[in-house]
Amino acid sequence: MLRTKPCSRRLGRLTACLTIALLGGCPEAGEPTLDFTASPAKIKGDGKATAGLNIEAKEANGSPGTGFVLITADRGALPPNGDPQGTFELIRGWASAKYSCNTTADPGCAGPQTLTASWRSLSASINVQVEGVAVPLDAGHPDAESAAGPDASGPDTGSEPADAGLGFDGSRPFDAATNDAALGADAGGEDGGTSADVGRGDSGLQLPPFDPNGMYMMSSVYDHWNDYEGIICNIQTPDIAAGGFYGAPYWDIQGASFRRSDGRLIYVSTSGPNTRRELRGFTVDFIASTNYPWVYAGEPWANDLLLPTPACDANPYGVGLFLINPQSSEAWYTCDHGDGTYYSSAGNAISACTMGDYPAPALQSLGEDGSRLCTHSVFDAVGTERALSQELSWVLTRPKPGGGFWAIVDRSTSNPYVFQVERWSIEPSGTVSLDGTYSSCPSGFMFVSRRESQGIDRLGRYYRLVKTLDNSGHGIARFEADFSSSSLVHDGTTYPVCQTGVNAGSWWNHFFVTAL
Fold this sequence. Notes:
33 strands; 31% strand
């Protein structure tokens, strides 16, 4: 009778162990090991959806494996050349790749595809299920998207497909009883990357589909690179997160926001092969927590979409600030250390704000109706600049649904028990009016004065970092849009994956992002 050691519960690892078992059993102590996983284990065969392949190799003494791993597939594409075979270097014992298969180009892609990882004398195999893509019966008629013409969301913002985004499939269940999730976020034909495997224990949790009316927070985890790395989650589901940011998120992801047209997170990256600031679209990377510390991609920026910023190409510092145009989803940006002029994705200068003491940097927000908000004035949809009817000293702004802007004015004092935050409406005509004052903090909490730790969503609800009266814990409060009440929507004392304080491997500095 063949005797084997117990193997991991996870599907990919179990399959790999079974493959090794057929060759002589799972490795005993003192032998090198090879662990090969795929997440998700099922993808669409459109050539865009990808399965994240991850390999962990260990030497006989338990130290991280070195050298190269060869991955071969029955058919399909592996980086960098799109061949069904590729060689990948182990970095601190880990290597990763992405696998895709196009059933239209190769009908044999449909069904289970076997992939094998080989390292020295060891090999491990896994199966990735590829779903066939239906071909329209009447090829003589364009599909609905083609009939609609080019991307209806607006001009090309970086040569990505119109449906590019996070690519999460929120229908996959999480079985709390077994702490084992259905692995993988079906990319659904998007280039959103691999799933975010970021649960407790050996879970495969995914961030749910992007909520355009929701609020998201950045946090971080301590990883196997001995550093803090960024993660993002919906504030109200802090145990379900996605990763793939380089370094502490406060520094690398400031000013990030989702595009409502496709749900993609746009941010300024300060990492990568150089230190220039680059405008990128986030792609989810495989990360995992089977034990402390977390496993995190070595170069998470490498698969993030690089957006065009031609006006800054000659600038050694790169991009400065950016705003998302809600009408077209185009990113308008400035150049770092420049004069503050905003440019379109084509590199054309945007008409500057002329009123008040500030030149072009005074541009604050872009409206859903084509209006533009400056520090002292507003442009209407046809480009006429008008002075604001009342000067405001706001801490943040955002476009109102349909047109115009909201501005948040904080009149709180240095006393954390004194909370007075107002929401104002600014119309394209320049009219400024007070909507109301948000309610006080939830019972048992007081506010924390941190500008980067507050936000307002598309429904007019205000979010603020708060702390307990005895200063023993932190959380996030939501103040309702009708100014009637507030409630705690994120409790940091429960130690979720995304946290608001320095505990259990999370980092203090974080901020909120939402759709613009």
